[in-house]
Description:
InterPro entries: Ig-like_dom_sf, Ig-like_fold, Ig-like_Receptors_ImmuneReg, Ig_sub, Immunoglobulin_dom. The protein is 15% helix and 42% strand. By secondary structure, the chain is mainly beta. 28% of the residues are buried.
Amino acid sequence: MTPRDTTLFCLVLCLGQKIEAQEGNLSTPTISATPGSVIPWNESVKILCGGAPESYLYQLEILGNSTYTVVEKKWGFQKTAEFVIKHMDTNTAGRYQCRYRKQYSWSVHSDALELVVTGLYDKPSLSTNGYLVVMPGVNVSLRCSSAHISFNRFSLSKERRAVLSQHQNGGRWGDFILGPVNLSFSGIYTCYSWYSSSPYVWSAPSDALQLVVTGKCTPAHTYVLFLRALADCSGPWQQAGIQ
Ligand SMILES: *[C@@H]1O[C@H](CO)[C@@H](O)[C@H](O)[C@H]1NC(C)=O
Ligand SMILES: *[C@@H]1O[C@H](CO)[C@@H](O)[C@H](O)[C@H]1NC(C)=O
Ligand SMILES: *[C@@H]1O[C@H](CO)[C@@H](O)[C@H](O)[C@H]1NC(C)=O
Ligand SMILES: *[C@@H]1O[C@H](CO)[C@@H](O)[C@H](O)[C@H]1NC(C)=O
Ligand SMILES: *[C@@H]1O[C@H](CO)[C@@H](O)[C@H](O)[C@H]1NC(C)=O
């Protein structure tokens, strides 16, 4: 190749690379919170932003009404960046998103992660008028109620993740129907009350209820059967955390 050819070759090649980079074909980042997205006031939470190999900058953003604010940037080559909120409060609760930078482009934004702070109002109570040890296929109804104050929203949570929200206008309770249930519905449930005007600020958690969905054992329709089921089947019970 003559020098002129080389120059031309490079021009085409470099330009091509630049255009490719600017168009940006980067995977959508993932965002998650650990230990979960429902966090007691003053406790810490980690936000993980998953990008791509060779990304060198990650940016965490909190969403306002129509725009976002940059919360923190993390430099350094890494596939996942970890952001820590040391003390959850009403200012750090909200909707977060992240994105990363690789070569000349920003990735698109991740989905929004909703971080909730809890413990700002007294706890509601969680109850059921049915059974907490059930066969798969059954619907389980739970009621979250507040003794004194009227809230307009109630949420059901399983192991620090919000699973269902219930709208109530000026009520003292919200009803939840779980189901038809399968084995993966087994677990510890709590509920929270809140106001629609502050969607990320919730009450303290209710006392916990444990739901056990068991495929192997006799349906436990009475307390006696409940005890028999306890004696009969060790597997699912242990999985559900009953000692
Ligand atoms: C992005 O890259 C993948 C594989 O690397 C390709 O299949 C896809 O068509 C590309 N998308 C765009 C918009 O260029
Ligand atoms: C908040 O948590 C920190 C520990 O992370 C503790 O030292 C501090 O006393 C707590 N603040 C309140 C008001 O409870
Ligand atoms: C967001 O919008 C609501 C009403 O749509 C308004 O009351 C609130 O002040 C706005 N918040 C900010 C931070 O702009
Ligand atoms: C459970 O609820 C669903 C609707 O969500 C209903 O179609 C179904 O019949 C119910 N099953 C039982 C056993 O009540
Ligand atoms: C249980 O039900 C949920 C929601 O209906 C479903 O997403 C999940 O795959 C089911 N799990 C099993 C083990 O069947």
